[in-house]
Amino acid sequence: MKALAIHGKEDIRWEDREVPAPGDGEVRLRVNYVGICGSDLHYYFHGANGEYTIREPLTPGHELSGVVDLDPSGRLASGTPVTVHPARYGPSIPGLEDRPHLRPGGDYFGSAAANPHRQGGASEFLIVEEQMVRVLPENLPLERAALAEPLAVAIHAVSLADGVAGKRVLVIGAGPIGLLVVAAAVHAGAGVVGASDVRTEPLERAQALGATEVSLVGRDTIDDESYDVVFECSGVGVALTQAVRAARRAGTIVQVGMLPNADIGVNLAPMLAKELTIRGAFRFSTEIDDAVRMLAESDALDSVVSHVIPASDAVQAFELARDSSASAKVLLSL
Q1: Per-residue pLDDT tens digits of the chain, which is 334 residues long
Q2: Residues 33/332, Cβ–Cβ less than 8 Å
Q3: ∠ CA 277-282-288 to the nearest 5 degrees?
Q4: Secondary structure (3-state) at 48
């Protein structure tokens, strides 16, 4: 079989591997699609994602769909369409009973956080633990199903705002996650959804998903205190400053974008007088099940997938995925 492996900065290879055999409690999948995420881009272009550096060849990918190839238990028939919850949680600790994704000691597909690394899904065949498998509805195409993991991130972020129904919502950064936050906020009944970005193309995509107010950075001005809830999805310090300004008094900011692991310039002074709530959003818990249901409801999110490229052309795919003017979500086909 073939699998992708990142060996270091701008060094990704389409390699031969042995076909793995599933053990007890495991299922072998035939992977069809893998989405390229921001963390994958960091691993490829920088050889590291934040503080996590590649120390051995890393197969990327935690957004995936495919079919069951072999389930030794016989529970899942060969050819059953599935997606995967890519997390294994650490041991239960007091206070985090309802937030298993925050427990220390867990891992995630396609991550260099641990050594040896947790290998990801950009492989023709993949072994997963049976509790990670999510069977897909018959009406959900595999290509769209590859959005389940990032949509779960977006749904989780929206849930952290403690209700957006009828509220004015701003999404800063209309990349793939920002677009899915727009869709999740609309689905959750937001009264108005606005979007802000440094490029026009992402804003056009956000409008197609239900954003009715768009702001181009450098051209348009977002009024202070004009939104009840702000989702910061760019991971840029100046955008968090903008979020603090845009949020109304007693409003909520949810930080979705991955901020750099460094001292950065952010002006949080207005948060005091406005008594803002700022919350971090980290992955998700059970929301992948909500994401699968939402994806099965309609084809509205098909537009988030802008390109499907063979995994053997990974260099081209990664170059395209980091250009937000040219692409939204780029999928690798295997």
Answers
A1: 999 999 999 999 999 999 999 999 999 999 999 999 999 999 999 999 888 899 999 999 999 999 999 999 999 999 999 999 999 999 999 999 999 999 998 999 999 999 999 999 999 999 999 999 999 999 999 999 999 999 999 999 999 999 999 999 999 999 999 999 999 999 999 999 999 999 999 999 999 999 999 999 999 999 999 999 999 999 999 999 999 999 999 999 999 998 887 889 999 999 999 999 999 999 999 999 999 999 999 999 999 999 999 999 999 999 999 999 999 999 999 9
A2: yes
A3: 120
A4: strand
Residue with tokens 């899942």: 76
Q: What are the DSSP calls for 27-42, one per residue?
A: EEEEEEEEEPPHHHHH
Look up tokens 């008594």; give the residue. 275
- Which residue do the tokens 């701008």 mark? 10
Instruction: Count CB neighbours of 144 within 10 A.
Output: 23
Q: Coil, strand or helix: which one is 303?
A: helix
Strand partners, 128: 27
Say how far residue 111 (Cα) sits from the centre of its chain: 14
Give the number of other Cβ atoms within 10 Å of residue 264's Cβ: 12
Packing angle, helices 148-159 and 176-187, rounded to 10 = 60
Structure-token pair, residue 49? 């994602």
Tell me if residue 66 falls in helix, strand or coil: strand
